[in-house]
Amino acid sequence: MHPTQSSQFEHAALKNYLLDHAYDEMFRGQSDLHRHCEPLLDHFLSLPSEELQRRKQAADLSFLNQGITFTVYGREEGTEKIFPYDLIPRIITAAEWETVEHGLTQRITALNLFLRDIYNEGRILDDGIVPREVVYSCKHYRRQMMGLQVPRNVYIAVCGTDLIRLESGEFVVLEDNLRVPSGVSYMLTNRRVMKRIFPQLFRSYNVRPIEQYTQLLLGTLRSLAPEGRPEPNIVLLSPGVFNSAYFEHAYLARQMGIELVEGRDLVTHDNVVYMRTTIGLRRVDVIYRRVDDDFIDPLAFRGDSILGVAGLFNAYRAGNVTLANAFGTGVADDKALYAYVPDIIKYYLSEEPVLKNVETYLLTRPKERQHVLANLDKLVVKAVGESGGYGMLIGPQSTKAQREEFARKIEADPRNYIAQPTISFSRAPCLIGDELQPRHVDLRPYVLYGDKVTIVPGGLTRVALNQGSLVVNSSQGGGSKDTWVLSQ
User: Alpha-carbon distance 335 to 316, whole Å?
Assistant: First the structure.
């Protein structure tokens, strides 16, 4: 498609701004802007190119000085990289956010009820709404959780749900991240940098604040403390400095004023967890864990793990310590189970889903499997337990050899894969060199569930910075930008 020949696109910075059928977060059409974007575009186009580059360098320097980096595994060159940051914020209106907030509240409520049910009465399985084999064959299902009472019945205290916007402008859920969702530190630091680099623009927009997230997270964790522990000792359990999200672990612990610990810092005695300190052992009541189930307790799960705490699961089962999120929550973010979430919402809440799912093919169903195998060049195939953009085939961008390899994998283990249509999700303007160019974006809002559901207005907007790419993960060349939810 040729660039639109309108006054909007006569500016040199927009000469390569190509509109296509994807929803554009700034432009409504050939000569039209979304009204809330007008001051934003005017401001950016009024700044000389050198000034924009100066501010970009100031942002990069700020990230570097704060140590805001991530690790790229499997690369021979330097693994630590500054998290790529785009200067142009993504704007969401108050009305759009209201729908998102309502839909996410509904979703986390239903998924908590689902987890409580499958680990206790199993009504949804008896009624055939979700097939037993989908649940029991999930590698994140933990039979050790059967019949165990979870504090306040909260299995998922922290959730990061990935949303994309369709060509119609409607937000839909791409996936739920319920085990150890990451990225919230980037959301918070993006905002801090943006306020410093564009203070006037930020003030003029009346953007809803997000800085309260860490205190809301702390309040959520406190609300889950075991009975009789009015002043709970809360810690953040990290796999350690070599984990790709270690910056985030340190950042959140510091912001909440809690201890950052590793497995070796904790010990269990008589089913109580203690932290080693310079003045002796101190009891731990709540653990915000950033370590997967498999590695968290070598006695209960993987015996070869050196990241966990021996006996932690027994202390948890005895009700002497709370973990957020609970063991076994990964069942509900298995990509095969995702297909059943609309039915789960209807079953427990007797409501229609506010946020729809992307159409999903389950490859354990022979008819759907045949359809997918015949159309691999048009579909996206994902491994159900992978994240970070790994274990994925993007059909339209794949080679014949890659499709043949995936066909073999699907035939060998259909339960391990799902397929979805290739969706051209929305694009937002990004500063690429001296120009504004559209790049695909998604949105990961962060949902907290304790005494009540709390969602800070915004989230992490991830950007597929490589031209034409649909993969937004930082590990695959993606970046991020600040997300502005307007007050009215």
Answer: 27
Neighbour count for residue 369 (Cβ, 10 Å): 18
Q: Is 305 helix (H, G, I), strand (E, B) or coil?
A: coil
User: Going edge to edge, which strands form the sheet with 286-289?
Assistant: 259-261, 234-237, 286-289, 322-324
Q: How far apart are the first and last CA of the chain?
A: 35
Residue of 442, 184, 162, 138 lying closest to 290 (CA atoms)? 184
CA angle 357, 114, 220 (to 5 degrees): 95
Cβ atoms < 10 Å from Cβ of 199? 10
pLDDT tens figures, 91-106: 999 999 999 999 999 9
Listed in sequence order, the DSSP H helices in 350-463 are 366-374, 400-412
Please tell me the chain's helix, strand, coil percentages from 3-state DSSP, rounded to the nearest 5.
Answer: 35, 25, 40
What are the DSSP calls for 156-188, one per residue? Answer: -SEEEEEEEE-TTS-EEEEEEE-SS---HHHHH
For the chain, list residues with pLDDT below 70. 1-9, 30-31, 69-81, 386-390, 474-477
Q: Which value, in Å, is the radius of gyration of the alpha carbons in the chain?
A: 23
The pTM of the full predicted model, rounded to 2 decimals, is 0.92
